[in-house]
Specification:
The chain is mostly beta strands. The chain has helices spanning about 1-15, 175-180, 195-200, 375-385, 395-400; strands spanning about 25-35, 35-40, 40-55, 65-75, 80-85, 95-105, 110, 140-155, 160-175, 215-225, 235-245, 260-275, 275-290, 330-350, 350-355, 360-370, 405-415, 420-425, 440-445.
């Protein structure tokens, strides 16, 4: 099945629709059915387009305007409606980015707090296991809406200032078992049991004020340093940023005002040729003040939005091969290393294509754990008939132990910017995913 998906996407990518007289000038249209696969989200179906405007071509392979639109849904009950506009020319001297996204997710992942401090039991969601509880045991409902605007201006040729504002709105709750069971056969219906999210509510680890979600305006500001030769697939240079994000909260959510700090460093090293590049990323997100509801701990702040949703640690946008949102904490450290090798370049008509591979290793760890009182958690779980050791491992060495995964990818690119990405990855520890390997089919390099 996986090979069939990859083959189909290769065919689709070869017949992408373009409308331009020359590759390096004017408009470039990349149109695809939104046929993708994510180990955490399932098979995706829908449609997407990425439209680039290169002007007279003097800035190629960089674009002057990019318009990205997508509407899709997955077999694991995750949707995406997104419109993104990114321009280096609309406001002369500034880069403007606008994004509106709605991501409904009826089966969002939740495996507890602080990574390895929370025990993960894959048999509980494996319906072929004698210990099976429910495929939805490590799930909850999380629908996210985001509207954001960001602007970038120059300080020097390589240093830019960045500022932005927007709003994040979440609607959360337990898995709607009745709705998910509609139309399902008896053998495939989900049992009506308490999931981990429900147990955390009963034990007081998720407060009543967090159970329905809320809306949170935010502002951020910082600076970026950029010496890359291009943005989509650099062959050399450095990209680094540091910024602060203040998230406001009002009314009954006023306890969730917070100030976070992010820093990221990416370097691209040419290994004797632009066709062989060593790329790595190191990043951190820290809470400096205030508190954050649990459903926002999975959100990774970014100065310039390239994806609809940035999960904090775990999943296709951070730690490939590790289950989505495996590591929820107040602060974390993230690292990715990959070797990018261009295998072949070829043209179809006036369009430039290349195929590349990228073996990689990803790692992440908790820096600021969420405070869980061991005695209270043990007592609370006992009151609901549960054994705390099935859910928690309070050893400090576990809390700060790195989560590591590795794998390899295939990239199919058109005109440098439109890049179809296929990554396969596996965790190095079974606690990070019960599956031996995971497959992700997305757009663009991870970083």
């Amino acid at each position: 099945m996986k090979s069939l998906i990859i083959t189909s996407l290769l065919i689709i990518s070869s017949f992408s629709i373009q409308a331009q007289s020359q590759v390096k000038t004017g408009w470039t249209f990349g149109v695809l059915p939104s046929v993708a696969y994510d180990a955490d989200l399932g098979f995706q179906y829908g449609a997407l387009t990425n439209i680039y405007y290169h002007g007279d071509g003097s800035h190629y392979p960089e674009y002057l305007h990019s318009i990205y639109a997508e509407a899709s849904y997955t077999t694991k009950r995750n949707g995406l409606m997104r419109l993104n506009f990114d321009s280096r020319a609309l406001l002369p001297g500034y880069r403007l980015s606008l994004d509106i996204s709605y991501v409904p997710d009826k089966m969002s992942d939740f495996a507890g707090f602080n990574g390895y401090q929370s025990v993960y039991n894959d048999d509980w969601r494996n319906d072929e296991s004698s210990d099976y509880l429910s495929r939805a045991f490590y799930k909850y409902r999380r629908n996210m809406f985001r509207a954001a605007a960001d602007i970038q201006g120059s300080i020097t040729e390589q240093v830019n200032w960045n500022a932005g504002l927007g709003v994040l709105s979440f609607n959360v709750g337990g898995v709607d078992i009745d709705k998910l069971n509609r139309g399902e056969s008896e053998s495939h219906k989900l049992p009506d049991i308490d999931c981990l999210y429900d147990k955390y509510r009963q034990w007081g680890l998720i407060s009543d004020n967090e159970t329905k979600g809320g809306s949170f305006p935010f502002i951020h500001a910082g600076a970026t340093f950029d010496t890359r030769d291009m943005s989509a697939a650099p062959s050399k240079g450095i990209w680094a940023d540091a910024f602060f994000t203040y998230t406001a909260a009002f009314g009954d959510k006023s306890d969730f005002n917070s100030l976070k700090f992010n820093a990221n460093f990416r370097q691209y090293i040419s290994l004797g040729s632009p066709k062989a590049v060593l790329a790595y990323r190191i990043g951190t997100q820290l809470t400096l003040a205030g508190s954050t509801p649990f459903y926002m701990l999975c959100y990774h702040n970014n100065l310039v939005l390239k994806r609809a949703l940035y999960e904090s640690l775990g999943g296709s946008s951070s730690l490939r091969g590790i289950m989505r949102n495996r590591i929820l904490s107040n602060g974390f450290l993230l690292a990715n290393v990959e070797l990018r090798l261009r295998i072949v370049n070829f043209d179809i008509g006036t369009q430039h294509f290349y195929i590349a591979s990228n073996p990689f290793v990803d790692a992440g760890m908790v820096l600021q754990p969420i405070d869980i009182d061991e005695d209270n958690a043990t007592l609370a779980s006992a009151l609901t008939g549960d054994n705390a050791t099935d859910y928690f491992d309070f050893g400090k060495s576990n809390t700060y132990r790195p989560h590591v995964s590795g794998g390899a990818g295939l990239k199919i690119a058109m005109n440098e910017n439109f890049i179809l990405s296929i990554d396969w990855a596996t965790p190095f520890n079974d606690q990070d995913s019960g599956k031996k390997s995971n497959l992700y089919i997305k757009m663009g390099y991870l970083f």
